[in-house]
Design a protein that fits this description.
253 residues, 20 strands, 4 helices
């Protein structure tokens, strides 16, 4: 069975069960690996894993959603031609720079890595969990780049039992679950996600956001992201795994 998500421009992504089916986690070279693509080098190391692998769904592969790395933007005036006042956006304003990420585009990309007024951020939106938030990409001494793993995960007592996309970072290939606000595998396991302070971002309508920030720039539609052929692994000092206030790492409902 497949579940299809209708996206912008009349396109769709269909979530289908992994080709590996129940064997999405395999043993290899003394470690446990989670299917990440047809090339075994794309599998995720889940030798240490904070999730119940039986509750993972789909497994499309780590590059099926075009998470943006170098996003392009248009002016508010140009965006007005296709973005209605009542259309939902995830908006951010930092240091005098404002940007809007239309939810209609975020349902296609899921993740947009960006920099706002010199601050590396990631705009993320999960249509299944209705979870939208702006996170800080700077964790400890390094700026991380995020993408979508192709998996969803749910537990009855987490986020009302709704399915939520599992993210990964390209720098350490750790997996992250936004509904619990931390990394769940890899070198970053148990490191908390960091929300940008709430006063800098909101989920609102384009009309309301534009009224506050008439010079805001808007994520450009129709972008395609060439999948990186390689990525330099980060091997420096990792952030502390100390517990933080959930309000700092888990998006408000």
């Amino acid at each position: 069975m497949a579940v299809c998500l209708l996206l912008t421009m009349g396109s769709a992504v269909c979530l289908a069960q992994s080709a590996r089916g129940p064997r999405r986690v395999i043993e290899r070279e003394g470690k446990r690996w989670l299917f990440g693509g047809e090339d075994p080098s794309q599998d995720f190391d889940v030798t240490q894993f904070r999730l119940d692998s039986a509750r993972l769904n789909y497994g499309l592969g780590r590059e099926n959603f075009p998470a943006l790395i170098e996003p392009e933007f248009v002016s508010a005036q140009e965006a007005n031609q296709w973005l209605g006042d009542a259309d939902a956006v995830l908006g951010v304003s930092i240091g005098g720079e404002a940007k809007a990420y239309p939810i209609s585009l975020l349902t296609r990309h899921e993740v947009v890595n960006d920099v706002v007024s010199g601050r590396p951020i990631v705009a993320a939106y999960c249509i299944l969990a209705k979870l939208g938030a702006i996170y800080d990409r700077r964790l400890g001494e390094h700026t991380y780049t995020f993408a979508v793993s192709g998996y969803t995960y749910s537990e009855p007592k987490v986020w009302d039992g709704l399915q939520a996309f599992v993210l990964w970072d390209r720098d350490t290939e750790s997996l992250w679950l936004p509904t619990i606000g931390k990394a769940v595998s890899g070198p970053m396991i148990d490191v908390p996600m960091r929300l940008v302070p709430q006063e800098h971002w909101e989920q609102t309508t384009w009309g309301e956001f534009r009224a506050k920030y008439p010079e805001a720039r808007v994520l450009k539609p129709g972008q395609r992201m060439p999948r990186p052929k390689s990525w330099k692994p980060y091997t420096g000092t990792f952030p502390e795994k100390a517990k933080v206030d959930p309000k700092e790492s888990i998006a408000p409902r």
